[in-house]
Design a protein that fits this description.
It is built from 2 helices and 4 strands. By secondary structure, it is α+β, with helices and mostly antiparallel strands.
């Protein structure tokens, strides 16, 4: 059986939490096969809220550690979807 996991990360204050989030993601770069980040743009200002979508592969034993480390950062929310086939 093959497992694939997608993580969705909501960063409630990019200015405050982006650095911590980046540090954690860099530490797990070997299991992140895709990363997509977005935030709302307008003519007057950039939104403080951002979202990141990750797909995980590689050493599955590290997946829970990544989620744990992300959840320890205040001001972000992590959701996951897992596919098995």
């Amino acid at each position: 059986m093959t497992r694939h996991k997608i993580l969705g990360i909501l960063i409630k204050d990019r200015i405050k939490e982006a650095g911590k989030t980046q540090t954690v993601l860099s530490g797990y770069g070997n299991i992140i096969s895709m990363r997509l980040g977005t935030h709302e743009l307008s003519d007057s200002k950039n939104s403080r809220v951002g979202m990141i979508v990750l797909t995980l592969s590689g050493d599955e034993s590290l997946w829970p550690n990544l989620e744990k480390d992300l959840n320890e950062i205040g001001g972000i929310e992590v959701k996951d979807i897992e596919f098995n086939y």
